[in-house]
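Hi there,

I know you've been waiting on this one. I reran it after we fixed the sequence typo, so this is the corrected version. Both the input and the resulting structure follow.
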Amino acid sequence: MISAVFQRFLGMLPLVLRVAVVTEIAVPTMTYLLMPQMTRLFSWWLYPSTEMTLPTKNDIPAIAENSQAIPLPNLQSPNEEKQQIAISLNP
């Protein structure tokens, strides 16, 4: 957009100088004028509330004081030997 606005003045400059001039205009404009406004506008999203409610023991039935633990089944058969896997990190 900056290039379009200043096209008449920048058209006679070489490409490198045109890019430098547009950059010199765009960076301060974005940094000091537009981004502070955008940060305020989207502050609800950029800085969400840090308040979190952690569940209590009564909220989770598995850890409630009056609940009974359910034993997990033994997934490894007693006859099965433990296997170890070695992974070489060097190619």
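Quick highlight: The CA atoms of residues 4 and 26 lie 13 Å apart.

Best,
R. S.
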